[in-house]
Amino acid sequence: MTRPRPADDAGTDTGTDPAADDLRVLAVALHDLSRAVRRAEGAHEGGLPALPPTEFEVMRYVDARPGTSVGGVAAGLRLRQSNVSAAVRGLVARGLVERSADADDRRVTRLHPTPHARERRQPVEAGWARTLGAALADLPAADAEAVRRAAAPLARLAARTAERRA
Asked: Rounded CA gap, 133 and 75, in Å?
């Protein structure tokens, strides 16, 4: 696993743009943090084992965009339609996604999160928050506060990044 360098080491590589290196360090840190949080206790809350990565991404996409199609998910996540179809089958089997025919075009299947999926979301996210809280408690107070202050801007950055990909 790639480890980000401490911030005070950022930009010390010969020939590297310090701003670009800072962004690389941030990207790696966010990726590693996301994986660590997802694999922690929160992923097992809500009465189900953790979802495979593709099912997890498809579930989040469907939850954010109820009524989307398999093709819409594939395009939005830049996945093969066959992989999305397999993930949807798994999610349907787990009772997390429902399929319904499009009212205007019966050839198109619409995807919706089930009530069970929505019930499962809160305890999973609460578990993630506990995981982060425990990790933040191990950081120096100033670092923990800086991370807490960055939460809203990071959420906006995530949304903006997703919009740019769409």
From this structure: 35
Cα 15 to Cα 4, 11, 20, 26, 131: the distances in Å are 18, 9, 11, 19, 38
Query: 57 near 21, Cβ under 8 Å?
Result: no
Residue 150 sits at the vertex; the CA angle it makes with 3 and 141, to the nearest 5 degrees, is 75
**Beta bridge mates, 110:** 69, 100
pLDDT in tens, 117-145: 888 888 888 888 888 999 999 999 999 99
Mean pLDDT across the stretch 136-162? 93
CB 77 within 8 A of CB 57: yes
The C-alpha atoms of residue 101 and residue 49 are separated, in whole angstroms, by 29
Nearest-angstrom CA–CA distance, 112 and 116: 11
- 99-125 as b/e: b if 16+ CB within 10 A: eeeeeeeeeebbbebbebbeebbeebe
How far does CA 62 lie from the centroid of its chain? 12
Q: Which residues contact 27 (CB under 8 A, 6 or more apart)?
A: none
The pLDDT tens digits for 61-79 are 999 999 999 999 999 999 9
The Cα 145–Cα 142 span in angstroms is: 5
